[in-house]
Structures are given as C-alpha cells and as structure tokens.
Design brief:
alpha+beta, 627 residues, six-stranded antiparallel β-sheet, 37% helix
C-alpha cells in the first residue's frame, strides 16, 4: 500500500476539484425553476425511480401472468413489491423489485442480483388506459418461448441494465465493471435523466453564476456544452415557394449529437463521455444496415431516431431536435401537426390540394404520412424521423413498406402508386433516393457496384447514406470503385471516413500503410481505432517511427474500447482477433476463453479459438473445441 504526504493529498484534492463535477438538480433549480417545472413528470424525470406505492404502476395485488406455461405472480409482502417467476435455473423464485424503469406506454421492473447486476424483467406493465388495451401484464416476446437458457431471457446478458440500459436512464452513469470478478459496482449521480445529463457537469457554471473567484475565466458560462444553436434563429418562409429557410446556417450539430448519445442505435467505445465533444469520440452509430433499416432507410429494427434523422431533408436544412421538441418537457412545442406549421405554411400544406384527403382525416395529417410509426416493445409506437415522402412505387419494386398501404391495406402498392401519380402528375421521389443502390447490394445484383459507387460519390446524399454505400463496397472493390473509397477516407464527415475504412477490410497489407496510417491520428476516436484494427496485421518493421508511435496509441484506444464492453463476449472476441492479427497468441487465447466463460452459448468464440489452435499447429485441440 502506498501513502501520500499531506502536501500530495492537498494537491490531489485540488486537481480533483479543478475538474468539472456534478452538483445535482436541486442546486440547478435555485435559478432555473421554470425549466425544472417543465421537466418534472417528463419521461426523462421518470426514466428510472425508486420503488414506492406511487411509482409502481403495475398490479401487484396477487396478480398472475401465464407465459408458455410459466405462471408468474406479482404480490406485496412486508412493504416489498415482489414477483415470483422463473430464474436463471428455470425454477420459480421470489424476487423483490429494486427500481421501476420507464413510465409510458409501458413500465419495466429491475431486479438486483448478488454480483451487482440489475436485470430488466421481460414481463412489463402496459400503462396505457384500459380503453386502449392497457392496464395489463404482457411479455416483451409474446410469440417466442424465451426460456432460462436463451440469451434473451430476462436474467441473461441482453437484459442487463448495467451494460445495456443504464447510460440512457440515469445521470453521470459509471458502469464500473470488474472483468476479473465479473461484478458490477455501477453508480450514478442522479437516478433519472436530470439537468446535467444534457448540459454537462454544473460546478463551473455554479461558480460563474455566483461570481465566485475566477468566474471571469469561465467560458460558455462555465458549461462544457452551451446549447445555443437556436439562439436568434428564425425560420423564414419563401412567399413564392412556401418553403422554409433557416435565417442563418446551423454552425454545428452539438445539440443533435448530445441527444444522439441515447437516441441512437450505437456502440459504446469509451465511458469517458465529455459534453460538447463529437459523438463518435465515445459512441459509434450504426449505419443503414440490413435488418436494422429497410433498403430505403425506413426504420425496421429498434434504431431510435438519430440514424433516421441524419437521412432527412430536415437535418440537411439545419433543423435541430429542439426546433420541434421542448427540451425540458420533451413534448412537442405545439400539438400534433401544428408543430410542422411553425416552419411550413399551413395555407400551402394543410389543404386537400396537397394531401388529397378529407380535412381532419388521418391522411390529412403531416405526421401520419411523413413520420409513420412502428411498434417496438409490443405497445410502443415510434415515429420514423426521416420525414420521407411515401413511395409505394418502391414497395412494388423492392418490397419496402409504405405508409399509404398501412392505411389502405386492402389495396395494392400499385394502386397507391397510381393514385400518387394521378394526384401530382408524376411519381413523387422525395429527398431520399438510395433504395435501389442499397437493395442491389443486399441481394447481390449485377449492377450493385455501379450503383454503390455512384451513391458513395454523391456529395448531395446524406453522410450516413454515403458511409453505408462505402461500407457495402467491401464486396465490390475494383479498379473503378477503389478511387471512390480512397476519396472517402479524406471526407470531412467522420461517419464517411469510417464507412470507407470498413470497405477496405480485405485489401493486401502492402496497401494499408499509406491509406490507413494518416487516420491513426484522426480527430475522432471511432476512426482512429478502426484504422488501428486494420493496421494490426502489418509488421511494425514496415512502419516508420512516427507511424509506430501513432499505431501504439490508437491500438491502446482500440483495446480500451473493447474493455469498455468487457462484460460482452463480442468485445472479448474482438480482442482475440486483434491480438491474433498481431501474433500475441497468449493474449488472444485468453480473450477467446474469456468470451466462452462469459457466454457458453457464444459460438463465434469457439470457432475462433479452434482456428487459433490451427494457427499454432495444434489441430487436435482445435477439433476438441469444435466438438
């Protein structure tokens, strides 16, 4: 054990106090009572709560729920709310509810295990009114019999609060996972999504507000993230075209990226989130991948909002989240489609000449047609934020869904396409015109290479679309496409640079150094660590001294990114592959074995461990692993 001198203790304390730290909502409301009043009772406020008679909305009056023959019972005893349900061994046990999770249209319940894990029960309470089918227990996987040995079982790794849910339901969340003991010691400064979850640590802002010594030196009022993108901005409507225009260009996407930290399908690569820094420094957003999005970019799996919004004409025009949503209540600024008429002239769009439906009908509603919903978690309809025109013609050709036939489900897509053509004199195309290229890539069409090349090279296409096209070119690299991918490595948008790196996964080692080494010092961590992963098989003797230093640092960041997810077998597999490519055999073997220890059902770890034994000349051991 090491002891510090008194002077060293004072210095350490001074350094700690010099860092921005969280002060809590009760401190904020001294000056921001109005914002607090709007926040109170919001979904952010009620994201996670202590269990009380008031916060628990489900029926715990000895209610029961039958799921494929397993009868679960919800009851109270000695002031505790309990559920009797199947545990990790498949047998019935009594579990006390530790926290409520969410509030509408469903509420889940968290149960604590001895290793610091909190697990989200898959039987949830439908909080909607009874007239809407609510006020009942239901299972999140109603059509599947999820048993105790399934990875989706409520006691399994995919229903773990600490790793899967916690970051977005609490403030200043620290996972604190110990890989050696496989224990969590997770902490948060506030149980819900409070002021500092969005604005960042408030200590310096408090110093600025109270004019404490040194307040004059505080930039941005002492906040690490000043959310002022809408300040002095107006949306002007062109009297001739009726189209809206932002009075000044959006200078950054800091507000959108702050929201996207949670409102995105993404992978965590660092727990050291800093407000105001690029999202891709700590999180890697998913591209428009098959099974997550339809080929035209519409939502398919649960992808939340960010990936859809990046595709939209709204995003390109400078719209931010808070143009439509009041950020403290998280409600729309105006009810229903009235929020659209903040910018879009009602005289132009709220008329049958535009929507061709009876007034006050569903078809006359902007949101119903341009932001269709899809249900997730059985009862939770989420709006697609790509703000697209309905394209029944693409439904005909590619099988993608369209909102016209969602309502007119007795009719065919051809019928809907003919209607649109008759109304508008042509088939409306809208802003997003990449479906045929992504569909060609997914089904392996002969023209996929040409279509993807054209899309990746289109400077007018959304960055997430171009990044996706580049990543899909991995299977279509040729003399024609290589210059397009090489150009992508130098793009301004980090998502495009990342997509270009993915396209070059299989290129020979000799080509990698000049292409990837400049990206080892990229300003964004996601790009740096991907460049390091792709350069890992290159012998260090082929790198210059400067390149070796850059690789060493980026490689450390890559390893740290996997260790940030050390509780996941996928992260251990990534480490094993990374170490294997560098010839670090013992570390690779340990990582594969750790993945299997975490998840005995995780097949890729067995396959790669067997291949590892093949590489070191021990086929007998590899066969044993496979058997």
């Amino acid at each position: 054990m090491m002891f510090l001198s008194v002077a060293e203790c004072h210095l350490a304390l001074a350094n700690k106090n010099a860092l921005p730290h969280y002060v809590g909502r009760t401190t904020c409301i001294e000056c921001h009572a109005e914002q607090n009043a709007r926040w109170a009772g919001s979904h952010h406020d009620l994201a996670m709560q202590e269990v009380t008679e008031k916060t628990v909305l489900g029926d715990f009056d000895n209610a029961s729920f039958n799921y494929f023959g397993t009868l679960s019972r919800f009851f109270q005893r000695e002031g505790l709310f309990l559920v009797q349900t199947d545990g990790p061994d498949g047998k019935l046990h009594n579990y006390p509810i530790k926290y409520t999770f969410g509030v509408y249209p469903l509420q889940q319940y968290l149960i604590e295990f001895s290793n610091g894990r909190l697990q989200a029960l898959s039987i949830a309470w439908d909080t909607r009114p009874k007239t809407e089918g609510g006020q009942r227990w239901f299972h999140l996987y109603p059509q599947e019999n999820i048993t105790h040995d399934d990875e989706l079982h409520w006691t399994g790794r995919n229903q773990n609060w600490n790793a899967i849910c916690a970051e977005c339901h609490s403030t200043d969340l620290k996972k604190h996972y110990d890989s050696k003991t496989q224990r969590f010691s997770t902490t948060f400064s506030e149980i819900d999504v409070s002021c500092e979850a969005c604005h960042g640590p408030g200590a310096d802002h408090l110093k600025w507000a109270k004019r404490e010594p040194g307040w004059q030196t505080q930039k941005n009022k002492g906040l690490s993230l000043l959310l002022n993108e809408r300040q002095n901005v107006q949306w002007l409507i062109d009297p001739k075209t009726a189209k809206p225009r932002r009075s000044q260009p959006r200078q950054s996407s800091k507000e959108i990226e702050m929201c996207a930290r949670c409102h995105a399908r993404r992978t965590l690569i660092s727990e050291e989130y800093e407000h105001g820094k690029p999202l891709m420094d700590t999180h890697l957003p998913r591209l428009l991948e098959d099974n997550l999005y339809y080929a035209d970019g519409q939502i398919q799996d649960e992808v939340y909002v960010y990936g859809s919004f990046l595709q939209s004409k709204m995003y390109q025009a400078g719209v931010t989240c808070s143009d439509c949503h009041e950020p403290h209540s998280v409600q729309l600024r105006l009810p229903n489609q009235q929020v659209c008429f903040q910018c879009h002239a009602a005289t132009q769009y709220q008329t049958p000449k535009h929507h061709f439906h009876p007034s006050e009908s569903t078809g006359a509603n902007c949101i119903a047609c341009h932001m269709p919903t899809m249900n997730y978690m059985v009862v939770d309809p989420r709006h697609d934020h790509s703000f697209r025109m309905p394209r029944p013609d693409l439904s005909q050709e590619l099988g993608t869904p369209n909102v016209c036939n969602d309502c007119h489900n007795a009719q065919s897509p051809a019928w809907a396409a003919d209607k649109l053509k008759a109304w508008y004199g042509k088939q409306p195309r809208g802003f997003q015109n990449f479906a045929k290229a992504l569909s060609a890539a997914r089904i392996g069409s002969a023209d996929a290479e040409t279509r993807l090349q054209r899309l990746a090279n289109d400077d007018n296409a959304p960055a997430i679309v171009r990044a996706t096209a580049l990543s899909e070119l991995a299977s279509h690299l040729s003399v024609n496409t290589f210059p397009v991918v090489e150009k992508g490595l130098q793009a301004t948008d980090p998502l495009i640079r990342f997509g270009a790196l993915q396209a070059l996964e299989a290129i020979p080692l000799d080509y990698r150094i000049p292409l990837f080494s400049p990206l080892l010092t990229d300003p964004v961590r996601s790009v740096r660590i991907e460049a390091a992963r792709l350069l890992a098989p290159v012998p260090s003797k082929h790198l210059s001294q400067a390149q070796r230093q850059a690789f060493k640092k980026a490689a450390q960041e890559y390893v740290a990114a996997q260790r940030a997810n050390a509780e996941r077998p996928e992260a251990q597999l990534n480490l094993g592959l990374f170490y294997t490519s560098q010839g670090k055999t013992q570390k690779a073997k340990a990582a594969y074995q750790h993945a299997i220890k975490l998840a005995p059902d995780f097949m890729p770890a067995y396959v790669n461990l067997a291949d590892f034994y093949r590489l070191i000349g021990n086929d007998a051991k590899g066969k044993q692993v496979l058997r």
